[in-house]
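Hey, can you fold this one?
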Amino acid sequence: MTDPTGRIDTLDFLRGIAVMGILAANLPAFALPEAAYFSPLAAGGTDPASVAAWFATYVLVEGKMRGLFSLLFGASMLLVVERAEAAGGNGAAVHFRRMAWLFAIGWVHLYALWRGDILTHYALCGAVAYPFRRMPVRGLVTVAAALIIWETAQGAALYGGVIQAQAHPGAVSRAFLAAMTAGFGAPPAQELAREVAALRGGYAEVLAWRWNTATSPLTLLPVLGPETLATMLLGMAGLKSGFLTGAWLRASYARWAAVGLGVSLPVYAAAALHTIAGGFALEDVVFGAVTLPAAIRTPAIIGYAALGILLMRPGGWLTRRIAAAGRAAFTNYLGTSLVMTTIFYGYGLDLFGQSSRSELYWLIIPAWALMLAWSQPWLARYRYGPLEWLWRSLAKGRIEGLRS
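Sure. Predicted structure:
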């Protein structure tokens, strides 16, 4: 499924699904204190509607859309390098310039706009992924499997640490549990109040809070890096094997979708129900947020990719709109941060910490509608999305032509 301009329609369409899904996953992170992303006990309410919203997001979206985006990042990265080399260019130079500028843009996004940036992490993982580009499909899958096992072991160790600390109280255990509660539980009310007050302040106060509390990309790398790198390598394998280009038989995509989603989503649902029944106990949240996903998220990501390719209708109105949103995914991702922080932070509409989790999801409708509304008309006139053009121009060291 390649159009006359050389774009691969399946990659654009899946990227559009991913960037729209990432918005749904990130809404609590835009609107509520950081710990509420994983636990409704921190903020956002534990009323039935909000718990149902948490359940649906956890089972269907959380981590999976980011994973789908990572899969596509790996495929696109390989495609850019191969096309540069086919044109007689230096693939390594092209790739590392792109990753350097992506890191720079992500760094500005992280500290100047929103704490949840993933671009810096992708840039670092993309740099690490480059040496694997010539591996055959089997080798890429083998390395990815080893990285997923490593990530699972890390998650199991973290969960074991929580259980151990709860069973053996002491100064070290208390400090560890306090740190885990800050990320996955219900932090003390005064800490939550400080975060809410800071993010409802002016831009200078928000910037100072983010500068002092945002997680460094280098700190994030060993935590999320193995899984992200694994998914990027699977994306390379998906491009080489034809899986991500729509070259397989529809029956094969149907099997992968049924197996991937049929295996993973029921397990996610069971874990979510157990967590709800346990009152969002810290150990249950940690297991459901870190330990379990490391082991079973990959089948869900592959299942969603297969399902998305099955649902594509080349030339269809919605398919073209979603694919356009995917072509402008960089702009849509950063644009989402700009719009949502303006809605929730103090220098905008000042709504941070004021909504229940269930109320937040009404924003999905206008946000998705905006992505679908602007992307296709823009790309009918211009070759790239605005930030795609900026990234490309920076990486090439010259102003790229923008008009189609």
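The mean pLDDT is 96. Let me know if you want another pass with a different chain boundary.
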